[in-house]
């Protein structure tokens, strides 16, 4: 259930109540694909980084260690140590990225594991059963992710298939949630809007899935290489047809400026590997722009990564020390920068929430949109 407490223009400030806690929105969901943030960051670190939601991946956890094992352990919460909300991606994006290893049929997708080549089948029912075994708070529907650009006719047929699959996901989740031994009988289901960059397909598809009265709705198939202007146009096209009382999730997005732009357009939830991936390569986000700590100019720099930041890395270490760790190949370098970047993203969303509450979002946007993606 989402309660909108404040608005400014189309920007929304709300509270999303889940079986594992209330999420303050807009919110960034922190990507722990295989059950941990890459860069040696554990679930227990997330509390210190202002994280609200951990996002794990159905496909990767199904391949290893196996969702049956995680179920035996008591689900992802017990397995990872994270006690807040967990969203599990359906695995659709990963399956469809295995273009040379998969075959799509109406019942689902036959593909080969990227780890050991074994044959796997996944369809709507299988994805729901795996996510039920994981015991996540929110399960994403199994959809077809179509590459951009795509032929209009194929994109239209894919949208129709995704609706059929969504209805199967909904029916299977209802069945699973009524079983006596289900780990999380209150597991929530989000549907995913598709349609490539075709405005009419996006709008029609969103109207169709909105009728299913799901727990939330995501915009998928963006941030895959298309120009940012196309992404913003699609968000503008889709959000008018998204239920006002349900969370709106923009999948896989993105940069700090992408987030500012999407909040302006009424989006509530985000996820992206960028803060952790960039951090592992010494690229850190700051309120002045993006720094590359590998640069020679930081060799004797006594300042923290960001002088305005009070994350664990900035409180304790200098740019010079972290650069030294990278040059020596020390894992601590990655850990410190990933922690900083996650803290930065969650602080950005915290600032956004405060700004909307106080009718200051426009000022926040004007101040930071020209700066945050700039390379220093």
From TrEMBL:
Catalytic activity: 7-aminomethyl-7-carbaguanine + guanosine(34) in tRNA = 7-aminomethyl-7-carbaguanosine(34) in tRNA + guanine
Annotated ranges, domain tRNA-guanine(15) transglycosylase-like: 10-369
Pathway where it operates: tRNA modification; tRNA-queuosine biosynthesis
EC class: transferase
Statement: the UniProt record of this protein carries the keyword Cytoplasm: no
Region of interest (RNA binding), ranges: 252-258
KW Protease (keyword) present: no
Enzyme Commission (EC) number: 2.4.2.29
Classification via Gene3D superfamilies: Queuine tRNA-ribosyltransferase-like
Purpose of the protein: Catalyzes the base-exchange of a guanine (G) residue with the queuine precursor 7-aminomethyl-7-deazaguanine (PreQ1) at position 34 (anticodon wobble position) in tRNAs with GU(N) anticodons (tRNA-Asp, -Asn, -His and -Tyr). Catalysis occurs through a double-displacement mechanism. The nucleophile active site attacks the C1' of nucleotide 34 to detach the guanine base from the RNA, forming a covalent enzyme-RNA intermediate. The proton acceptor active site deprotonates the incoming PreQ1, allowing a nucleophilic attack on the C1' of the ribose to form the product.
Protein name per UniProt: Queuine tRNA-ribosyltransferase
Protein's organism: Solibaculum intestinale
Species classification: Bacteria, Bacillati, Bacillota, Clostridia, Eubacteriales
